Amino acid sequence: MFKKNFFNSCVSFLVILGIVIGASVTHVELVLAASLTTLSDTQSTVKANTLSDHTIQFVIPSGISAAQAITITFPNGWNLGALGAVSTDFATSTSATCSGFTDALLANGAASGLTWGVATTSQTISITSGTAVIPANRCVQIKLGANAFSQASGTSQITNPSSATSSVILISAGADSGSVTVNILTDDTVAMTGTVNQSLSFTISTSTIYFGTLGSGAAKFASSTNILGDTVESVAHTLGVSTNAPSGFTVSVRGQTMTSQQNASNTITAIGASAASSTPSTEQFGFRATESGGTGVTVSVPYSSPTSYGYSATATTSATLATGSGATTLSTLSLRYVTNIAAITEAGTYAANLIYVATANF
Fold first, then answer.
1. Per residue in 157-175, pLDDT tens?
2. Contact 220/211 with Cβ under 8 angstroms?
3. Which of 43, 119, 217, 312 could form a disulfide linkage to 273, CB 3.0–4.6 angstroms apart?
4. DSSP string spanning 298-353?
5. pTM (2 decimals)?
6. Which helix (H) or strand (E) holds 23?
């Protein structure tokens, strides 16, 4: 009995000794899994039963070795569609900071060298390394959907679950793993309305202008400040127009030419629709206009001449003075009036009432 116990003790001692010696000459390295950090999944929409792009980011503490894979698993209810290399971008940054990404080469199926392989099942997309590696503590960015552009423009998107839910997406990256929670809503859109009122502003700087005494020897020009009129051309008054009408505006003028207040059949001839220069001793009534400050505003013929004048309206017929092609801030029209008479123009007090109208084209 003593010999048997002694023998067993010797065997146990030798086994322990062998383990100790083996441990001293053999180095055993254990690889421990770690948790992914800085996980996020940014979607283009979280509305139920709607196509959506995903931008997934995370930091891999242990890195990725050759032949290892990154796998993203969506719960039941998500439809990955026809995701593949075209609709997938896979990029890494140079640090744990998720910025400054560099895209990797991808291909459908098996990996080849530095080209990663992409494989999709009904709920999982896997990106597998060939010989490529990702160092430890690097940020990874994976784009899934129409937001992918590295290989080509993405053509397939993921369909969100058919009803509102909270989902946990599982991610494994080599030895590390993690998860990210996303919420799907019945509707992720907030509808807003607002009204911009139509606007049209129209002003006339003064309602009274003067020619004074007319003579056949020289032209007279209208003035808003000198009741005797002016012998040199001056701006008699201005019109101001502003509007938010998308099709702009029209300014028109209507009214008879200078007419005798003693005998309505006596008038000073209007220059007409063709611009003409001032010619003393010839009956003429007309004006010209210039524009400033507006956008897309045009003075119409015959009022647009830089040195000549015109007047084509009547007491019952309007003529277009200016037009605007679209919305404009304040447009200022500066008007200069001229009157000439002949030696035989009938005596009397002559007057005219011109009506200016601005019409917005909404």
1. 999 999 999 999 999 999 9
2. yes
3. 312
4. EEPTTTT-SS-EEE---SS--EEEEEESS-EEEEEEEEEEEEE--TTPPPS-EE--
5. 0.66
6. helix 2-25
